[in-house]
Design brief:
98 residues, alpha+beta, two-stranded antiparallel sheet, 4 strands, elongated
């Protein structure tokens, strides 16, 4: 109620950051401005926000679903993003296997 009075929302946020020493992870309640994408999520909705060096922030939102659906959707989206970053492989010649 105090956060709402300040114009913010409290959301449980899982985060990960790559550092030279390794990956630092955390799961904790975070107070976010009402204008933040994560603050606007309702019910079973969730989101993944990737901070990239070339594209800026990329957000993937799921408006509802179970834990299994959420995990599959996020993994599928991450694989798709990664595949699009890789250079295209040359087509194999007939009669040859790659």
């Amino acid at each position: 109620m105090a956060a709402k009075a300040r114009g913010t929302r409290v959301r449980l946020v899982a985060s990960a950051r790559r550092t030279p020493a390794g990956v630092i992870t955390a799961v904790r309640p975070v107070e976010l401005p009402e204008t933040d994408l994560l603050a606007g999520l309702r019910g079973m909705a969730n989101a993944l926000v990737l901070q990239t060096d070339l594209l800026g922030d990329i957000a993937i939102c799921q408006l509802g679903g179970s834990l299994t659906q959420t995990a599959y959707a996020l993994l599928s989206d991450l694989v798709t993003i990664r595949r699009r970053q890789l250079p295209a492989r040359p087509a194999a010649s007939p009669g040859r296997t790659p």
